[in-house]
Amino acid sequence: MKTNIGISEQNQKAVSGILSKLLADEYVLYTKTRNYHWNVIGPHFNDLHKFFEGQYESLDASIDEIAERIRSLGSKVPSTLGEFVKTSRLAEHPEKYPDAQTMVQNLLADHEKVIQYLREDVGACDEKYHDAGTQDFLTGLMEEHEKTAWMLRSVLEK
Questions:
Q1: Is residue 4 over pLDDT 90?
Q2: 3-class SS string, the chain
Q3: What is the phi-psi region of residue 110: left when phi exceeds 0, alpha when psi lies from -120 to 50, beta otherwise?
Q4: How far is residue 7's CA from residue 15's CA, in Å, rounded to a whole number?
Q5: What are the C-alpha distances in Å from 117 to residues 19, 84, 156?
């Protein structure tokens, strides 16, 4: 059944493409955060283990919300690991187990990249695609990533 929500079909597809890239980024970041949760070692193990757990749980919730937003625009959701790796703008680091500080630095860098992508996408959803709903949705996600980035930066402060 055709989606009739006041956004042209072309714009719905374009916004779904933006959301699909974001979904892939979030899934790669989720996987990296979960990896670090499992593999962190050192004197701050307990704190970082719990810290990373809270982050991947938040990312998991965001992943579901993004997928549901894509569906609400009438598109199918890319949902395989192959699609996520192919589409994501974030890099994976297979078979690398960095020290705890590097883990935090890597996560901070990825959250900051996602924030930058979201800033661009918020503007496009508003100005180019006239989708206020997705603009608002992405703004909320951006704020969550900004908060996480602040927390990660705080862990790195001397």
A1: no
A2: CCCCCCCCHHHHHHHHHHHHHHHHHHHHHHHHHHHHHHHCCCCCHHHHHHHHHHHHHHHHHHHHHHHHHHHHCCCCCCCCHHHHHHHCCCCCCCCCCCCHHHHHHHHHHHHHHHHHHHHHHHHHHHHHCCCHHHHHHHHHHHHHHHHHHHHHHHHHCC
A3: alpha
A4: 10
A5: 11, 16, 23
* Cβ–Cβ under 8 Å, residues 18 and 125: yes
Q: What is the pLDDT of residue 112?
A: 98
CA distance 148 to 158: 18
Q: pLDDT tens across 69-96, in order?
A: 999 999 999 999 999 999 999 999 889 8
CA 130 to chain CA mean position, Å: 22
The pLDDT assigned to 158 comes to 83
pLDDT band at 1 (very low <50, low <70, confident <90, very high): confident
Q: What percent of the chain has pLDDT over 90?
A: 93
Q: Which residue has the tokens 């503007």?
A: 123
Sequence-distant (≥ 6) Cβ neighbours of residue 87 within 8 angstroms:
20, 21, 23, 24, 78
